[in-house]
Every structure is written in C-alpha cells, then in structure tokens.
Write a structure and sequence with these properties.
The complex is a heterodimer of chains A (307) and B (135). Chain A is α/β, with parallel strands linked by helices. Chain A has helices spanning 44-51, 73-79, 95-102, 111-120, 134-146, 164-178, 192-195, 216-222, 230-239, 259-268, 280-289, and strands spanning 6-15, 18-28, 33-38, 59-64, 80-83, 152-156, 184-189, 201-206, 209-215, 223-229, 241-248, 251-257, 273-276. Chain A has a 6-stranded mixed sheet with strand order 5-6-7-3-8-9, sandwiched between helices. In chain A, strands 11-12-10-13 form a 4-stranded antiparallel sheet, sandwiched between helices. Classes of the chains: A alpha/beta (307), B mainly alpha (135). The interface between A and B is medium-sized, with 25 and 19 residues.
Chain lengths: 307, 135
C-alpha cells in the first residue's frame, strides 16, 4: 500500500488559450482527509475532472490508486466515489429508485449499505429528487458516491450551498463514515473555517500550481504576521518568505512563512517586533492575493487587491 | 463534558480543546477516574478530525491530566487538578503579558495597572461576599 491514493505530476491543462493548470504536482497519501483549496476559477474542478478521467490532460502524469484515469477510467471509477459540484440527478426519480438505478453500474455496489446510509443521512426514499432540499440533495449524492465502498472519495465542493447546521452535520458524516473507516477523502472547498476542524492536510492552488501544502495546525504555526519597523524589515526579506505586507506609518506588517527562522533572526539582532496569530482564512488570503514585493518603497495606503 | 469549538479563531482547534478540558479538570467538573468519551465519540460530537482528538488526548496524558487504560478508554488522572494548574498558569501568564502590553500602549503607568488589577480583584471579592450573604 505504498503507492499514494492520488499522484499528480507536473500536469498542464488548457482550454483553448486559457491555461488552467501549469505544472501542478500533488500527492495524497492513503487514509488522509485532504482539503483542496483555491479561489473560484483556480482549477479545482478541472483537477478533479482530470482525476476521474472526465477530462484529458495536455502534459504530465496522473495516477489514482495506481491507475491512469485516461487509460483505465473504468478501474478508477470502480474504486472511487465521486460527488460533483452541484450534482444533478434525474428529478423525476424517487430517491429509492435512483439507488436501484445506480446499483448495476458498480460491481461492488452494496445495496444494504446504500439503504443504511440513506437512513443515517435521513434521505427520504419515497420522495422525488426534484422535491429534495439542497442539503438532502448533497446527502443523496453522498449515498450514491459511497455505496460501492470506494477506497477513495472525491468531493467537489460538497459544502457549497449548505446552511451552517447542514455543514456541521455533513462534517460529522464525513468524520464518522469516511475518516472512521479509514478511507481517503479528497475534497475541494473555499470555506476554510469549515475545512480546518476536519482536514488532516490542506493544499492551496493558485494560478494552476500548488503554492503550499501542509498539515492544518502546522500551517498556522508556520505562517504568522510580524509587525516591526520598516528599517528592520529588510532583514526578513532575505532570510524568510514574505507572503504579504501592509505598511503602517513607520511600521510594516509582514505575513511570513517559516516564522520560526524569522523570529530567531529578530531575537538575535534584538529587533523590536510583535507577532500576530492568523486564522486559516487570513493565511489563505496571504497565499492567494498577498503582495510580496515592493514593500520597501510602498506608500502608507496598501495597494488595492485585485478581486 | 461540554466543549465549544470556535471556528475561524486564531487559536488552533487542538489548543481550544486542551484548554477547555484543562479548565474542567481545574474546576472539578471533571473528577479523577471519570471516563472521557472515546476519540471517535468526541470527534463525532464536535465534528472534529479524529487525529486531532487523538493528539489532544495524547498531549493531555503527557501533561498528567488524563490517563489511557489499555482497552478501557481514557480517564481523568488522579492528580489532574493540580497538574491542570500548571497548564493554566502558563496560559494565564501569557494572557497577563498581553494585557500588560495593551495597558502600556494605552499610556498607563505601572502603578495604574496595579491599581486596576487590585480594583478588579476587589470587585470579585465583594461579589462573592454578597452572594454568600444572600444565600
């Protein structure tokens, strides 16, 4: 079991002249709950569709549970449970009908398990799909994704459109039914505060590449904001990674990755400074929209951030 | 055992849980030999990653607040109350340091800060005595 669940090597993907993935590399170990983060349009859904063989890559290599989704899509789909973003299902079918409809597509489909999940997730089997609420719809999709006992579950923004109570319930389902059973879960999201309690690791996608991958709590220990005098700030520029800066009069607030080394330097030189802990949203923001250059000469007003 | 996770807080989730369990041990709400929920149960209840809960329990075991009995589960240690004081002391010192820093940046003198703390303590004592008198 030494092969990773997901192995993406230097993958490129363009749609006409629009480059979405630019040499993306990422491995996900088996048994992990892995959150895949990025802004809208960063390439999360494209990556997921490549993993399932729904799209073909332009360059690079992909292995999912040891199979190439481009050449062996059936092997991949037999072992992977997939919930698409905004999954649409036949509205005229009753929930119970779609479970029976899906069963023959999967050699390992376990119908008793499907019914058990439907009960656990409170999916009303007698109701037509078009009458389901958004939350029920996601949970029905999850039942369909899990009933063939997949080794790997890929969820494309499952929390999208769920209210806070449904999201908590969904996280609970994920922890009990997936983490608890040792499966690998790969899911995309942009609700960081929802991801934080649940994920073992996160990866941040920006401009078609992974810019950071880390255990959730390690990331928070590693990335912090340091507020110090502008003159002293040059010291950090050389020795550590500055993700973002906010000038403030004679001071500057730097968001720094590798904060341990940075603080050692400041202590060694006796530079006065203040450290601010950041939450995951702020860290994410620093990675995806941070300005790392030009702060030495920047005016007091921070540069407007592109949206 | 009632725990509350604050999402999006600058305090990591594991530290939040550690702090709250230590608090329950210190206040005696968790009594020695009391059994804690299993890793799986607590993970489900709080909707928090099982590995996070496992790390929290392991940390609290090494701090002497909890003990794991093989095959039986996780229990509050005999000396949890006194050990939790050490954990809390460290946190309290850090919080006092931050308060002191804020007070200094507001331009208060050391004496004024001492006075404010004395006043706060005074108020608490008064509240405690009135509560006793009325009961």
């Amino acid at each position: 079991m030494s092969t990773p669940a997901i192995d993406i090597q230097a993958v490129h993907k363009s749609f006409r002249r629009h480059q979405v993935l630019r040499g993306m590399t990422l491995q996900v170990e088996r048994g992990q709950t892995f959150a895949f983060l990025g802004r809208n349009g960063a390439g999360k859904t494209t990556t997921i569709q490549l993993l399932l063989g729904l799209l073909n890559r332009d360059e690079g290599a992909i292995r999912v549970l040891g199979h190439d989704p481009e050449n062996e899509p059936l092997e991949v789909r037999a072992k992977v449970g997939y919930l698409a973003e905004d999954q649409t299902m036949y509205g005229w079918m009753k929930c119970g009908d779609i479970l029976r409809f899906m069963a023959p597509f999967y050699p390992t489909w376990d119908h008793d398990l499907a019914l058990k999940y439907a009960k656990d997730f409170e999916v009303p089997l007698q109701t037509k799909i078009k009458h389901l609420s958004k939350g029920q719809n996601v949970r029905l999709g999850l039942v369909l994704a899990l009933a063939h006992r997949p080794e790997l579950v890929i969820l494309d923004d499952p929390a999208l459109g769920l209210d806070p109570i449904m999201r908590k319930q969904f996280n609970r389902d994920l922890i009990t039914h997936l983490q608890g059973e040792g499966r690998t879960v790969f899911y995309s999201s942009h609700l960081l505060y929802e991801v934080e309690p649940v994920a073992d690791e996160v990866a941040i996608l920006k401009e078609g590449r992974i810019v950071r991958r880390s255990e959730t709590e390690a990331l928070r220990r590693d990335v912090k904001q340091i507020i110090l005098g502008r003159q002293a700030a040059g010291l950090l520029q050389e020795k550590s990674t500055v993700l973002d800066f906010r000038p403030d009069g004679d001071d500057v607030a730097l968001t720094v990755a590798g904060v341990g080394i940075a603080l050692e330097l400041l202590h060694r030189d006796g530079v006065e400074h203040r450290v601010v802990d950041l939450d995951l949203d702020e860290i994410f923001e620093a990675y995806v929209t941070g300005k790392s250059h030009g702060w030495e000469t920047a005016e007091d007003q921070p540069v407007a951030i592109e949206t | 055992m009632l725990l509350r996770i604050e999402k999006g807080s600058a305090v990591p989730i594991s530290r939040q849980i550690i702090g709250q369990i230590a608090m329950l041990c210190a206040s005696g709400k968790l009594q020695p030999s009391q059994r804690l929920p299993s890793v799986r149960e607590l993970a489900r209840e709080l909707a928090v990653n099982q590995n996070t809960i496992l790390r929290v329990y392991e940390r609290l075991v090494s701090d002497g607040l909890l003990e794991m009995r093989h095959g039986q589960g996780t229990f509050v240690a005999q000396s949890a109350k006194s050990n939790s004081r050490t954990v809390h002391r460290e946190r309290l010192i850090e919080e006092l340091r931050q308060l002191a820093r804020q007070a200094l940046s507001l331009g208060l003198t050391t004496e004024q800060i001492h006075d404010l703390l004395a006043q706060a303590l005074d108020q608490l004592h008064k509240q405690a005595t009135t509560a006793e008198a009325s009961s």
